[in-house]
Specification:
Layout: H1 9-17, H2 21-43, H3 46-65, H4 75-93, H5 119-138, H6 141-152, H7 157-164, H8 168-189
Length: 193
Amino acid sequence: MKSLTNLPDQQLIHLFMSGDASALENLIVRHKDKIYTSIFLLVKDKYLAEDIFQDVFIRVIDTIRSGRYTEEGKFLPWAMRIAHNLCVDHFRKVKRTPAIKTGDDRDIFEVINFSEDGVDRLMMQRQSHGRVREMLDRLPEDQREVIILRHYAELSFKEIATLTDCSINTALGRMRYGLINLRKMMQEKQIAL
């Protein structure tokens, strides 16, 4: 698996299609944090996020094995689109839209490894991440979604526009208003991160 870590996504996909299961494992490890974090921020439930994350890679595997994968060099945006669609499907299935909540006790950053930091630094990071998460939860859903996809999944505005079925200008506007609203919240509550 070590020799596969530096290979581009497309090469890993070709190796997986040739029967090398460790290539897929490497691809999953490479992108799991971005995909899982984005799902979690949308559904706000750790167990549901884990289920959807697994469904994403089941779909990825099925698509690659059947030879239907055609997104040359764009694996992460493609996988993020699958994740986003599965989240939307979930909310349609339960006939509700994601509610904006505050005070969620779950820590999104459980998926990030903080083991090298000291206890005091870890506590400060968790407090800051918790504050940011609470403020994100208070944003309108369309603004929150663009910020999550841009900052946590690191997608381009073009990819976000495609994923959310809006124009690039709309995605940019949602980002702008989301950031303005976050700044207002920070000033009103005198929050320092």
